[in-house]
Design goal:
161 residues; alpha+beta; 4 helices
């Protein structure tokens, strides 16, 4: 489901993820290489037109991965070894966005964020979310949120062992 649909279905997790990604401005993006091995790459993230967007250099390895196999994972960047903010993980498929209006909106948003915008050609993908999770550890507890379309948001708290 598109980002706006996900945030309507799971507003607490959607808000947490968007705030974190906007703060960090970069995520770790997992794709699948042609030989089946995983590829993990840093990638800037932006939000526009109800979508979470990833702009990529033309024919970059991660873009070629997504054009061949659209499955991807998005992971927040840990702040340090304790990672007090927790981990946010989104799973889904990348959608190759070619609509000129959406691409113009992406350029407007990235220009406002970093005073720069890409020039054609470049790749633009949005994420269709199929699953999401948030995990945070404190000295005493593990906090785990897990969302799927079929189960909705489940929140669990476990003592650290």
């Amino acid at each position: 489901m598109r980002w706006d649909e996900f945030t309507a279905a799971g507003p607490d997790l959607g808000k947490l993820a968007q705030e974190r990604f906007e703060q960090d401005q970069v995520v770790m993006l997992g794709t699948i290489r042609a030989d089946g091995r995983p590829r993990l790459s840093p990638c800037e993230v932006d939000f526009a037109a109800g979508r979470v967007l990833f702009g990529m250099m033309w024919q970059s390895p991660k873009a070629r991965d997504l054009l061949r196999d659209a499955r991807l994972t998005v992971h927040s960047v840990p702040s340090d070894k304790t990672n007090a903010g927790g981990d946010i993980k989104l799973y889904g498929t990348g959608v190759d966005e070619r609509d000129p209006g959406l691409r113009a909106e992406f350029c407007r948003v990235i220009q406002a964020r970093i005073d720069w915008q890409p020039t054609e050609p470049y790749h633009l993908f949005s994420l269709d979310v199929t699953e999401a999770a948030y995990v945070r550890f404190t000295d005493e507890h593990q906090y785990i949120w897990h969302w799927t379309p079929s189960t909705g948001l489940r929140q669990d708290q476990k003592p650290n062992q």
